[in-house]
From TrEMBL, chain A:
Keywords: Signal. PANTHER family: SPORULATION PROTEIN YDCC (PTHR37507). The keyword Signal applies. This is DUF2092 domain-containing protein. Residues 58-84, 277-299 are annotated as: Disordered. It comes from Arthrobacter wenxiniae.
UniProtKB/TrEMBL annotation, chain B:
Keywords: Membrane, Transmembrane, Transmembrane helix. The keyword rRNA-binding does not apply. It comes from Arthrobacter wenxiniae. The lineage of its organism: Bacteria, Bacillati, Actinomycetota, Actinomycetes, Micrococcales. This is ABC transporter permease. The chain crosses the membrane at residues 55-78, 109-137, 157-177, 184-202, 240-258. Pfam families: ABC2_membrane_2. It comes from the Bacteria. PANTHER family: INTEGRAL MEMBRANE PROTEIN-RELATED, MEMBRANE PROTEIN. The keyword Membrane applies.
Length: 408, 265
C-alpha cells in the first residue's frame, strides 16, 4: 500500500540535496527489476555511517526542541518509553515530530549484526544516543542528562520481514524520528504495485559509493507524491539515499541519505555503554508480549501518515472495540482505507484522537483549523482530524480527505 | 612583526579585554559554586555539569563567549589594525619605511590572529584553573555518554580551543578589510562587531538556509562535534575551509583597497 510506503518516501526525501552526479558513472547495465532484486538482496550487516536528513514540506520552521525532549517525554510519561510507545501522541513526541518535519538532522549510525546497533542524533551542543548491545538497549540524552536501560526478553528477536537480511534501516530503537534510507526503501518497495511506474535514473555516487537510482513514479495524478528515488549501492544493494519529491516540484520534499559510509564493523566499544555519573537512569524490562516500541516512534507516524491510528491501537491488550467516545482510544480502532495505490486514504474512526489531545497547544501548533476539523497539510501528505476524533490521512490533497470525511 | 606584537600587548586595552574574557569562566565557576548546580536542561549547555566536573567550566564559558564576547574583542583589535594607525596619524610614517603595504597588512593581520589565539587561550586557561580550583576533576563524560579521563578531556578541550580560534580568523580578516576603508578606528570596530552579530542573526533565519553555510559564524558552535565519541571531524574541516576562504577573500579585498589608497594621515 503506497500510502504506508509514504513514510519511507518522506524520510528518504529529507536528505537528498545534491544528487546530480557531475561525472557519468559507469555501472553494468541493469533493468529496474534487477536493481529491485539487488535492493531486496541487501545483506549488509556491518556499517558505520553518517546520515543527513532534510525535509522541506512547506511547513513553517519551528524550533527543534530536540535535545531534552526525548528525555522529558520519557519522564513525563509514567512507565517511560513503553508507555510512551503506547500513546505516541504525547506533547514531547509531537514537538519531536515537529522538529523532524521542519529541521535538518545529522545522525551517525553504527551497525554490527542484528544485536549491535548505535544511533547518535547530533544536536547542537548535545546528542541523543540509542545503543543496543544484545538484550540491552540504552537511550541517552546528553541535553537532559538522562538515560534509560531497557532489557529485551529475547536477546535476538526475529526481525519482521526478511530474517537474516537486516537492513541498516532497521534501527528499531532510533531515537525520535530518524528514518534511515533502508527503512524508507523497504516501506516504499513493500508498497509497490501496478500503480507504480518503475524506472532507472542516471547512476550516481552517494558517500563515495556508486549507486543505481531506482525511480518510482505513481501513475495516478491523485497523489501528492511526484516521485521517489532510491539510490541503491551497486555492490551490496544497500539503499544509500531515498528522495521523495512532491508532485510538480523539482527539489526534494524529503531526503535521507548517507554523507559518509563505511561498510566495516565499528569498534566493539561503540556498543558498550555505561551512563556517566550524575545521569538520572531509568531501568525497565520489556514486557513479555513483544510489542515493538521502535515502531511507535514519531518517525513512524510521520513517515506513515496513514498509520497514525495504528500505534494507538497496538497496545490495546485485546480489548474489544468500544464505541463509547470517551474510551474508544483505548480500544482498537478499526482502520479502514479507501482509494487505491498511492492515493489511498487511511481512516481511523471517531475517538482515535483523545479530546484532551486535540486541544493541546502542541497539536494546535501543528494543525490548522479547516472545514471539517483540524488539518496538517504538507507538500507530501495531509492529515485531517475531525471534531469527533476521527483521523483521515494520505498522500493526497486535503480536499480529498475532506471529501472522504464528508462522505461518512 | 615583533614590534607590532609588542605594541599590541603593551596596550592596556588588550590586557583589559583578555582579562574580561578570563573573568567570564571565573564568574561562571564562582556563581555555580555559590548557588549550587542549576537544573539540568536549563541555562547554557554544560552549565548543569559543572558541579560534577570542573572542566565543564571551560566549555560553558566557550558556549557563552563564542557568539558574543570573543567576536567583540576580535572586532576591536581587527577593526583597529589599519584605521587605528590612520586615526593616530602614524600610518604614513609606517609606509615611509621600505617595507611595502602588503607586508604591513600581513603583519597587521598576523597581529590580529595572535590576538584571536590569546583571547581563546585566556578563556581556556582561566576556565581550567577556576574549574579545577573550585570543583572536582576526574573522568569527563562526553556528549555521547562515554567517560574519558581528565587528560584526554583536556586534550579535547585544547582541540575545541583550536576550533574556536580558527573560527575567529575569518572575522579578523573581515575586520582588517573594514579597517582599510576608514580612518576612524571606532567605526571599523563597530562595523566588524555589527557584522558578526548580523551574520549570526542571518544564521538563525530558516528562510535563508541556502546562505547559512557561507556565513562565517555558521560553524561557531560546531566545536561540540569534537566532544563526541568518536570525534566528528566534519565540522572542524568545514569550519577551517570556510575561514580560510574568508581570510583569502577579505585579505585580497583589503590588499586591493589598501594598495591603492591615498594615505593622508
Amino acid at each position: 500500500m503506497p500510502a504506508a510506503a509514504m513514510p519511507a518516501v518522506i524520510a528518504a526525501a529529507v536528505l537528498a540535496g545534491p544528487l546530480q552526479a557531475s561525472a557519468r558513472i559507469d555501472l553494468p547495465a541493469r533493468t529496474p527489476e534487477q536493481v529491485l532484486a539487488l535492493l531486496a538482496g541487501n545483506k549488509v550487516q556491518q556499517l558505520s555511517g553518517t546520515l543527513e536528513e532534510t525535509a522541506s514540506l512547506g511547513l513553517p520552521q519551528l524550533p527543534d526542541l530536540g535535545p531534552g525532549s526525548t528525555g522529558s517525554s520519557g519522564r513525563a510519561t509514567p512507565g517511560g518509553p513503553a508507555a510512551a510507545a503506547a500513546n505516541p501522541l504525547t506533547a514531547g513526541n509531537i514537538s519531536q515530530l515537529l522538529g523532524f518535519l521542519t529541521t535538518p538532522h545529522t545522525v551517525r549510525v553504527y551497525l554490527d549484526g542484528p544485536a549491535n546497533q548505535r544511533v547518535q542524533v547530533l544536536d547542537t551542543l548535545a546528542e541523543r544516543d540509542v545503543i543496543r548491545h544484545g538484550p540491552t538497549v540504552w537511550t541517552y540524552d546528553s541535553g537532559a542528562n538522562t538515560a534509560t536501560e531497557l532489557t529485551l526478553p529475547n536477546p535476538r528477536r526475529p526481525k519482521t520481514g526478511a530474517p537474516g537480511a537486516l537492513a541498516p534501516g532497521s534501527f528499531e530503537w532510533a531515537p525520535g524520528a530518524v528514518p534511515t534510507p533502508a527503512a524508507l526503501a523497504a516501506e516504499v518497495v513493500k508498497g509497490m504495485d501496478p500503480s507504480t511506474q518503475l524506472s532507472l535514473g542516471s547512476n550516481t555516487t552517494v558517500a563515495g559509493h556508486s549507486a543505481y537510482v531506482l525511480q518510482l513514479v505513481p501513475r495516478t495524478g491523485a497523489s501528492l507524491i511526484g516521485k521517489v528515488s532510491i539510490a541503491v549501492d551497486s555492490g551490496t544493494g544497500l539503499p544509500l539515499r531515498v528522495t521523495v519529491t512532491a508532485r510538480g516540484q523539482d527539489s526534494a520534499a524529503l531526503e535521507v541519505g548517507f554523507s559518509k559510509l563505511e561498510l566495516t564493523a565499528p569498534p566493539a566499544s561503540t556498543f558498550l555503554f555505561t551512563p556517566p555519573p550524575g545521569t538520572s537512569v531509568t531501568r525497565k524490562s520489556q514486557p513479555a508480549v513483544p510489542t515493538k516500541p521502535g515502531g511507535f516512534t514519531p518517525g513512524t507516524v510521520i513517515t506513515r501518515p496513514g498509520a497514525i491510528a495504528t500505534p494507538l491501537a497496538a497496545p490495546a491488550p485485546g480489548a474489544p472495540a468500544n464505541d463509547h467516545p470517551a474510551v474508544t482510544h483505548h480500544a482498537t480502532p478499526k482502520v479502514a482505507t479507501s482509494g487505491t495505490g498511492w492515493a489511498t486514504i487511511v481512516e481511523a474512526p471517531a475517538g482515535t484522537v483523545p479530546a484532551t489531545l486535540s486541544g493541546s497547544p502542541a497539536l494546535a501548533q501543528l494543525l490548522q483549523p479547516v472545514a471539517g476539523g483540524h488539518a496538517l497539510s504538507t507538500t507530501l501528505f495531509s492529515v485531517l482530524i475531525t471534531p469527533d476524533g476521527a483521523v483521515f490521512a494520505g498522500a493526497v490533497p486535503l480536499a480529498a480527505l475532506q471529501q472522504a470525511a464528508a462522505a461518512k | 612583526m615583533a614590534s607590532e606584537l609588542s605594541v599590541m600587548f603593551r596596550r592596556r586595552r588588550t590586557w583589559a579585554m583578555l582579562a574580561a574574557l578570563a573573568a567570564i569562566p571565573v564568574l561562571i565557576a564562582v556563581a555555580v559554586r555559590v548557588t549550587g548546580a542549576g537544573q539540568s536542561g536549563h541555562g547554557p549547555a554544560f552549565l548543569d555539569r559543572i558541579t560534577q566536573n570542573g572542566l565543564f567550566v571551560v566549555l560553558t564559558a566557550l558556549v557563552l563567549c563564542t557568539p558574543l564576547f570573543l567576536p567583540l574583542t576580535v572586532g576591536v583589535v581587527a577593526g583597529d589594525t589599519v584605521a587605528g594607525e590612520a586615526g593616530l596619524g602614524t600610518l604614513r610614517y609606517l609606509l615611509v619605511a621600505p617595507a611595502g603595504r602588503a607586508r604591513l597588512l600581513l603583519v597587521k593581520y598576523v597581529g590580529a590572529a595572535v590576538f584571536c589565539l590569546a583571547a581563546t587561550a585566556s578563556v581556556l586557561l582561566a576556565g581550567t584553573v577556576a574549574g579545577l580550583a573550585l570543583f572536582p576533576a576526574g573522568p569527563v563524560p562526553l556528549l555521547s555518554g562515554e567517560l574519558v579521563d581528565g587528560w584526554t578531556a583536556e586534550g579535547r578541550i585544547l582541540l575545541v580551543g583550536a576550533f574556536v580560534c580558527v573560527s575567529l580568523l575569518g572575522l579578523a580578516a573581515v575586520g582588517l578589510f573594514i579597517s582599510t576603508l576608514t580612518d576612524v578606528p571606532v567605526g571599523a570596530m563597530a562595523a566588524t562587531i555589527a557584522l558578526a552579530i548580523a551574520a549570526q542573526l542571518l544564521d538563525a533565519l530558516p528562510q535563508l538556509d541556502w546562505l547559512h553555510p557561507w556565513l562565517f559564524s555558521h560553524w561557531w558552535l560546531g566545536f561540540a562535534d569534537l566532544l563526541r565519541q568518536p570525534v566528528e571531524w566534519t565540522s572542524f574541516g568545514n569550519n577551517a575551509a570556510l575561514q580560510l576562504g574568508y581570510v583569502l577573500v577579505f585579505g585580497a579585498l583589503a590588499y586591493g583597497r589598501f594598495a591603492t589608497k591615498d594615505v593622508l594621515s
